[in-house]
Design a protein that fits this description.
It comes from Pedobacter alpinus. This protein is mainly α. The chain contains six helices and no strands. The protein has one domain.
């Protein structure tokens, strides 16, 4: 189920985003959104390249918590940078959902993840 959701959100849902928000140029927008999957090139620098219980967010450089504000900043530019920003942020959202699946199955993964610790600290700050 996790893989079905992950790849649907990475490959099919961007077509819906492109069609709804960029109807006149939806094919071009969809292509740009698919190109933002190249953010995963940073996985090649990890050892091992793939680890089933590794949350991408907070681990890979282009998925770090420090770069997310840059992606948000791109939203304030005109097309095509705005479309790139939407693609990058949606990619991270998709990976976040993947992280939730991982964390639900692997408690040790939560303790060793930057994103999980970040969320924990925010919830603790607000008294949750």
């Amino acid at each position: 189920m996790q893989n079905l959701i992950h790849y649907t959100l990475h490959l099919i849902f961007p077509a819906l985003i492109a069609y709804v928000f960029f109807r006149k140029e939806w094919k071009k927008a969809y292509f740009i959104l698919l190109c933002t999957l190249l953010i995963d090139i940073d996985h090649l620098f990890a050892n091992p390249i793939f680890a089933a219980n590794r949350c991408s967010i907070g681990f890979h450089p282009l998925h770090s918590l420090y770069i997310i504000p840059v992606y948000i900043g791109l939203l304030f530019f005109k097309k095509p940078l705005r479309i790139v920003a939407i693609g990058l942020l949606f990619h991270l959202f998709t990976d976040f959902i993947d992280c939730l699946f991982i964390f639900s199955k692997c408690k040790a993964c939560v303790a060793n993840n930057v994103l999980a610790n970040f969320i924990h600290n925010i919830l603790e700050f607000f008294g949750f």
